[in-house]
Amino acid sequence: MAAHDIPGSGQQVGSPTQRTTAVPLDERRRMRHEARTSQTYKAFLKYLRDVGQFPSDQAAEDAAVSVLCVLEQRLVGEEDKDLEAQLPMKLREVMVRCDRHEAGPPPRKFGRVEMLAMVAEDLDMDPDDTEPVIRAVFSAIQAQVSIGESEDIAGELPPDLRDLWTHPT
């Protein structure tokens, strides 16, 4: 049987199709995974920038890191791990106690005023200006997780923090 060109495909009928590349399959998979991870994170930052009206990706990222670190300190039991499991890979990396709080006390219960103060200190802001930042980050996080997980987190928070979580924008 003679090989025939398939128009526009660059292939021939009757000839074996082989992908020739110098990059091993495992490396190509790793590269695709990193590209998807990076795209997901960029989409998260874009969403956060739009919702929070942050001036740059760096400002949005700083806000996300601060709020996630403080939130992680507030969640007790396994809820922080459940939330982390639903976040994009690059967000999982920041959903751990930030360096500043790593040596601090274990997760504990605190309310809105303390959360505003902690985020304000992290971001070098006035505590009165941090509520919109927290609401924007909460909105971006909720866009990444299931409704059930969002409800589980709301159930862990006291009423004053639950209001920030359930009405993020």
How would you summarize this macromolecular structure in one to three sentences?
The protein has one domain: Uncharacterized conserved protein DUF2267 (Globin-like, Orthogonal Bundle).
What can you tell me about this protein's structure?
- This is DUF2267 domain-containing protein.
- The chain has helices spanning about 25-50, 55-75, 80-85, 90-95, 100, 110-125, 130-140, 145-155, 160-165; strands at about 5, 10-15.
- With about 170 residues, the chain is mainly α.
- It has a single domain (about 25-165), classed as Orthogonal Bundle (Globin-like).
- A two-stranded antiparallel sheet has the order 1-2.
- Strand 1 (about 5) and strand 2 form a beta hairpin.
- Helix 1 (about 25-50) crosses helix 2 and helix 2 (about 55-75) crosses helix 7 (about 130-140).
- About 25% of the residues are buried.
- The model has no long low-confidence stretch (mean pLDDT about 80).
Q: What's the CATH H-level homologous superfamily?
A: Uncharacterized conserved protein DUF2267
The succession of helices and strands, N to C, reads EEHHHHHHHHH
CATH topology: Globin-like
Which geometry do the CA atoms define? globular
What is the topological layout?
Layout: E1 4-6, E2 11-13, H1 25-52, H2 57-74, H3 79-86, H4 89-94, H5 99-102, H6 112-123, H7 131-142, H8 147-156, H9 159-166
Antiparallel strand pairs: 1-2
Helix pairs in contact: 1-2, 1-7, 2-6, 2-7, 3-8, 8-9
Q: Notable features of this structure?
A:
DUF2267_sf, Globin-like, DUF2267, mainly alpha, two-stranded antiparallel sheet, 9 helices
